[in-house]
Specification:
two-stranded antiparallel sheet, 2 strands, 324 residues, mainly alpha
Length: 324
């Protein structure tokens, strides 16, 4: 099997070879800019990894991998517009560097190009791949809408939050691996199992990201903790803390959320103190681990070689079991 780093380098070389060199320049150049500002390229690498697991042709899977990466970046460009975000990975977002209309159009053409590259897959696999891809594209949009709705929704349940992150984050990871498995010639059962593995891994990954945002060490996670707390984002941690504190008739958390922010550091410290009071970190870790267990259960049922299964286990450690 190829290493993840080798697959990433292979994909990056292919993506660079497909850089946009067309007119109108003001439509395509923003996408070249956005695609080159970094990122782990996790989704296309997972697609190639899944193809490799079943001894498929990794080179032939590169167009599908690029389609996935194009779709992911299309969604990020539009997310940035909706959020009014000035930066992405410490670089200006497209709507800030260029303008709003350019960001919308560049995102749109990237989505169309994603379908163009998807059409390059072998005819024998195209229908199955197209169905998985299109279903996933709709689900990602649904997840984004739920996330927007939560901003003004007074109460959000655990189930609603978990469904939102499944749609917004996990299904694209899962689709990447299922498409890769299909292109590798895997049977329907193995392709479905790999989807279940990656879907649960994606949910665990997002829960871990929420945990790190609250409790992570800045030097290890690469950003200042507490961003979700400052924005009153309805993460799994905040939802559970509200439930537990309200059960104890403790109104501190509600008051903090409703009050205007005058001191960000003080707000983060006060909320973390409440999180500690109600053992929120332990709760979140248990929820994360329950999804890791589901991913591992699906992994065990795969019929690929043991070397491949071990690579998938290491992927869990790399993505989810991250340091604080």
């Amino acid at each position: 099997m190829h290493s993840l780093e080798a697959l990433r380098e292979n994909f990056l070389a292919y993506m660079q070879s497909q850089a946009f060199c067309k007119e109108p320049r003001n439509l395509y150049e923003p996408n070249n800019y956005f695609l080159q500002i970094g990122g782990k390229r996790l989704r296309p690498v997972l697609l190639l990894m899944a193809t490799d697991l079943f001894d498929g042709n990794v080179q032939a899977a590169l167009p599908a991998a690029l389609a996935i990466e194009y779709f992911h970046n299309f969604s990020l460009i539009h997310d940035d517009v909706m959020d009014g975000a000035p930066l992405r990975r410490n670089f200006q977002t497209i709507h800030e560097k260029y303008n709003l209309n350019t960001a919308i159009l560049s995102g749109d053409v990237l989505l169309v190009k994603a379908y163009e590259y998807l059409s390059k897959v072998d005819d024998q696999y195209f229908r199955k791949v197209f169905e998985v891809y299109s279903k996933t594209a709709v689900e990602v949009c649904e997840g984004q809408q739920y996330d927007i709705d939560f901003e003004t929704q007074v109460e959000v349940t655990h189930a609603a939050y978990l469904e939102m992150i499944r749609l917004k984050t996990a299904v694209l990871l899962a689709a990447s691996m299922k498409i890769g498995a299909i292109l590798g010639g895997a049977g329907e059962k193995d392709a479905d199992l790999l989807y279940v593995y990656a879907e649960n891994l994606g949910v665990a990954f997002q829960i871990q990201d929420d945990i790190l945002d609250a409790f992570g060490d800045e030097s290890l996670v690469g950003k200042q903790p507490g961003g979700d707390i400052i924005q009153n984002k309805k993460t799994l941690l905040l939802i559970e803390a509200l439930l537990r504190s309200e059960a104890e008739d403790d109104r501190r958390l509600t008051e903090i959320i409703q009050a205007p922010v005058t001191d960000k550091a003080a707000k983060v410290a006060a909320v973390l103190d409440i999180f500690e009071t109600y053992n929120i970190r332990t709760f979140a870790l248990q929820m994360r681990d329950s999804y890791v267990e589901k991913a591992m259960s699906a992994l065990q049922q795969l019929s690929c070689a043991e070397e491949g299964k071990e690579a998938l286990r290491q992927l869990v450690n790399h993505l989810v079991v991250r340091e604080f």
